[in-house]
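Tip: read the tokens left to right.
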């Protein structure tokens, strides 16, 4: 069974069980550079329009050599775009957000739509050109190289809600959503229209799945009320998934959504999402057995391994126990791809990264260990 078949079975698109639970992981730049040097594999970086997504869609050659069962690609910055840093170290990305590098992730310092109030303000804003030169060069090459052996996931993370609050600011957006300010729904629609164009181009290039990414939860609860999600956001995502299904009926819609979002999972399934990621551990409603019991008939799960504390700070025994538990529960009867809940950062040693991969392979053979 090759990796492509393994993931299709785990995602419930092929009958039967995979021979083992498939594995996926993302690496920050320092870890990718380290392993590239050690393994003598050149590391190719696809610079995404939103900087942190770069590490979802880069280093595919390296990651599959290390044991990943999927290839993840996405849109690149335009050939016409180059970072020009100001004296304070900040820069404008293609969305015209002013960015700076934080300790781990990039941070938005100035929002291009910070003064938005009306529909006219949204119409006046110019999104990046989805068809700009170079946008899908890497995606096309990866599909041609790996399509027969690996499931190809097209990443359109920072999709609607997250893109909107990166354009106007989180506090402003949340207040304006509650006030039903004129620009809010048009902004969500405009973000969706832009990402639909990106997604359709990825489908044209040959991806098997589209990975949306928006966070509706905190560590303890939802960011927005379920009713607000259903009224203002759910129809937008449903329109996107329907459009992608129209273009490619067998496309696999995947949602990355951090935080405690169990209260939205029925709605998320009704939208059409089939795979739920990252199944963030340690938040209310996300115990593995609760996820499997309450939603195992609705989703395949992808993720569930804590990269905030366990991977950098836990003992080797604690890591092995957690991996074994997640596989035994979420992987029972299929429906699970194991992965850290987010990008593995530089606070995780290379040795721990390798141990994670080895333990996933050790415990991942369904029907043998469990």
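Filled-in amino acids:
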């Amino acid at each position: 069974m090759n990796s492509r078949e393994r993931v299709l079975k785990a995602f419930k698109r092929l009958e039967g069980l995979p021979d083992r639970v498939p594995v996926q992981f993302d690496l920050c730049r320092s870890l990718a550079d380290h392993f590239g040097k050690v393994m003598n594999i050149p590391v190719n970086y696809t610079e995404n329009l939103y900087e942190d997504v770069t590490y979802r869609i880069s280093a595919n050659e390296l990651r599959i050599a290390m044991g990943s069962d999927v290839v993840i690609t996405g849109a690149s910055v335009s050939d016409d775009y180059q970072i020009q840093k100001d004296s304070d170290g900040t820069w404008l990305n293609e969305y015209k957000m002013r960015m700076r590098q934080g300790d781990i992730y990039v941070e938005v310092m100035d929002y291009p739509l910070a003064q938005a109030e009306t529909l006219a303000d949204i119409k006046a804003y110019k999104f990046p050109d989805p068809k700009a030169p170079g946008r899908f060069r890497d995606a096309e090459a990866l599909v041609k190289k790996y399509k027969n052996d690996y499931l190809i996931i097209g990443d359109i993370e920072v999709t609607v809600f997250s893109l909107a609050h990166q354009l106007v600011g989180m506090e402003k957006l949340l207040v304006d959503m509650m006030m039903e300010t004129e620009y809010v729904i048009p902004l969500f629609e405009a973000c969706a229209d832009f990402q639909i164009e990106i997604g359709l181009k990825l489908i044209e290039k040959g991806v098997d799945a589209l990975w949306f990414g928006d966070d509706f939860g905190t560590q303890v609860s939802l960011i927005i009320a379920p009713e607000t999600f259903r009224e203002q956001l759910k129809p937008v995502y449903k329109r996107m998934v329907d459009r992608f299904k129209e273009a490619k009926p067998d496309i696999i819609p995947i949602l990355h959504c951090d935080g405690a979002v169990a209260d939205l999972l029925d709605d998320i399934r009704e939208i059409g999402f089939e795979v739920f990621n990252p199944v963030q551990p340690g938040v209310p409603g996300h115990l593995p057995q609760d996820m499997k019991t309450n939603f195992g008939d609705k989703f395949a799960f992808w993720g569930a391994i804590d990269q905030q504390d366990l991977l950098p700070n836990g003992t080797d025994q604690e890591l092995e126990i957690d991996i074994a538990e997640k596989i035994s529960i979420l992987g029972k009867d299929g429906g699970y791809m194991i992965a850290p809940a987010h990008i593995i950062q530089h606070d995780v040693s290379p040795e721990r990264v390798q141990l994670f991969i080895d333990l996933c392979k050790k415990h991942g053979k369904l029907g043998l260990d469990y």
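The first strand starts at residue 70 and ends at 74. The chain has one domain: 3-80+112-363.
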